[in-house]
Design goal:
The chain is an alpha/beta fold. It folds into 2 domains: 3-219, Spore Coat Polysaccharide Biosynthesis Protein SpsA, Chain A (Alpha-Beta Complex), CATH 3.90.550; 225-433, 3 Solenoid (UDP N-Acetylglucosamine Acyltransferase, domain 1), CATH 2.160.10.10. Helices cover 16% and strands 33% of the residues.
Length: 450
């Protein structure tokens, strides 16, 4: 059976004190709506977003993530009314999952289990928080099926003692939803249409409503910047715990940010204040020093990334030494056993096996052979103000300190470039390239200056 997910993202979140919609606030570098959309795409054949406040902002943002349906809730008069706006897109033979744009940490496996538990037509996602105060309690019959949701303000003393709460997320057959959505009434103090009423409405029709329970941390929502911080901290702890269970040593799980998908080998070590963003692959024995930032990068086994290194959209081989204070930019490929040292910047640079650039160097649009050595202060001059050109440095070549290689230019295998040279022509194999003025000494010159 196909799955159709409705994401409720119409709320303004006035307590956020923001010009943007609540679901456009970021958690770990990614908007909450983007997080929940990416999760929903893993289990959905179709997605419908219910928008309202800042609808243009949400739609513009969501269009970058895929093709979805959009419906507007004209007035914020309850979650039941919000879901009702999506009914024209719902088919009888679909399973409908309801998610929230400001509840970003729910896991794909949780949703798969929720869907599986709805085989009889209706299942709700519940949790057992340490303190259930403020949440709607799940009332069950002797068969352990849900019969209603009682809000905190309406609960009697016995019902307040119930620990199981409704998270707001559910899975229901399209047919059942379409048949019961109009039965939701707004005869309450807020004059709103509550989606929770679907439970009691369908229970009275003798529809069995199953429950699937999840850790409360997955279903935390954010209505204020303080609650956003709580979700940020929760996400950090969840991600760190996941890596630790895979064998990663994390010096302090409160001082690491994981903002994407991280695949790890055995015996990795991550020091404090490290940010891992996007798609990251770490081989066995990778060590990452403090205050480093790595994004969309693959790192080979036994590579050591020292403190304050910045790496983005790169591929680093095994047994490399990176940093400290290295900047490896997009398109860089660092070969096995290579070294990129302090204050070295690379962009679209390929370093062969064992190549070294140890200090104070810029390597842009550069191909460097195996075991080549790049001296301090070297610059590959790849840009003439209009176009960019490639510099090629052969195997076992040696570039002296403070050299400028003006692209396009090629340094042959085994060649040397004398320190302080400006090289504008190719240097053949096993040759010495010198591009500097001849030194002349003026005897007794300094005596005239005294």
């Amino acid at each position: 059976m196909k799955v159709h997910t409705i994401i409720l993202a119409a709320g303004s979140g006035s307590r956020m004190q923001s010009l943007k919609a609540k679901s456009l606030q970021k958690v770990a570098g990614m908007t909450m709506i983007e997080r929940i959309i990416k999760t929903a795409k893993e289990i959905s054949d179709q997605i419908t977003l219910v928008v309202g406040y800042d609808k243009e902002g949400i739609i513009e943002h969501a269009k970058k993530l895929g093709d979805f349906n959009y419906v507007e809730q004209p007035s914020p008069i309850g979650t039941g009314d919000a879901v009702k706006q999506a009914i024209p897109y719902i088919s009888d033979d679909e399973k409908v999952v309801v998610l929230y744009g400001d509840v970003p940490l729910i896991k794909v496996d949780t949703l798969k289990n929720l869907i599986s538990s709805s085989e009889e037509g209706f299942s709700i996602l519940t949790s057992f928080p340490d303190d259930p105060y403020g949440y709607g309690r799940v009332i069950k019959n002797i068969d352990h099926n849900a019969t209603s949701i009682v809000e905190q303000k309406d609960a009697n003393d016995d019902q307040k003692n119930i620990k199981e709460i409704f998270t707001g997320n559910l899975c229901i057959s399209g047919k059942i939803l379409k048949e019961s959505i109009n039965d939701i009434k707004n005869n309450n103090a807020a004059n709103e249409y509550y989606l929770t009423d679907l439970v009691s409405i369908n229970s009275k029709k003798e529809i069995k409503i199953n429950t699937y329970s999840v850790d409360i941390n997955e279903v935390l929502g954010a209505n204020s910047k303080k609650e956003l911080e709580l979700i940020e901290n929760t996400n950090r702890n969840m991600q760190a715990k996941d890596l630790q269970e895979k064998g990663v040593t994390i010096v302090d799980s409160n001082r690491i940010d994981i903002r994407g998908n991280v695949s790890v080998g055995k015996d990795c070590y991550i020091d404090v204040n490290v940010i891992l963003e996007g798609d990251i692959v770490l081989g066995d024995g990778v060590e990452i020093g403090p205050n480093s930032y790595i994004k969309n990068t693959k790192v080979g086994s036994n590579t050591n990334i020292k403190a304050f290194s910045y790496i983005e959209s790169a591929e680093i081989g095994s047994m490399c030494n990176i940093g400290p204070f290295a900047r490896i930019r997009e398109g860089s490929e660092i070969g096995d056993e290579a070294k990129v040292g302090n204050f070295v910047e690379t962009k679209k640079a390929k370093l062969g096996k064992g190549a070294k650039a140890s200090h104070l160097t810029y390597l842009g649009d550069t191909e460097i052979g195996n075991d080549a050595n790049i001296g301090a202060g070297t610059i590959t001059c790849n840009y003439d103000g209009k176009n960019k050109y490639v510099t090629k440095i052969g195997n076992n070549a040696f570039i002296g300190s403070n050299s400028a290689l003006v692209a396009p230019v090629e340094i042959g295998d085994g060649s040397f470039v004398a320190a302080g040279s400006t090289i504008t022509k190719d240097v053949p194999e096993n040759s010495l390239g010198v591009g500097r003025s001849k030194q002349s000494n003026i005897k007794d010159w300094s005596k005239d200056k005294k």
